[in-house]
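Troubleshooting log. The previous structure file for this entry was overwritten by mistake, so regenerating from the original sequence record. Sequence copied from the archived sheet and checked twice against the printout by T.R.
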Amino acid sequence: MVTELLEDPELAPDVPQPPSPGLLWHVWEEFHQAVGERMPRTSQVTWAGVDELVREWRGRERLYPLQRHVVDHVEAAMLAMIPRLRDDIADSVFRWLALDSDPGRFADWAVDTAERCVIEDIGADSAVELLGAMGSPEARAALDRLSVKPGGPASWDNAEAAQGRLFELGDGEVER
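Regenerated output below.
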């Protein structure tokens, strides 16, 4: 009976349709953009700053229901943003390190960090590129470990990227 009521608009004309997940994600993206404009550096993203932004959004003359939903559930919006922020930061750091004229000088700490990020899929593409740019035996060994598939430590796509980088570095064959 309830199903019939929900499916027949004449029987239940005021039953709201839930937003599509894509539409809700779009509104979260709008909030993410507002946070980025207000706090362009991740070190500036604070709960106090986000609370101030929420107060401003609530003060808008026209706030759409989904915008109000995001404002009312800002913790969920922020949690949705955290993986993207982590990926953006890692990607930027690895790209910056790879620009160094001697990226191998970072081997003491960068190899382990890059390998871990590839395994956890955080800034993985630029981490693989950095490992290749470093060219040290440690970096090559990390790429070799990451290139194992199936069942290796990295996702299938990241293992493919590691294999491709090893191919570019070597004589055309991936070491095993």
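The longest helix spans residues 74-98. Archived copy saved in two places this time.
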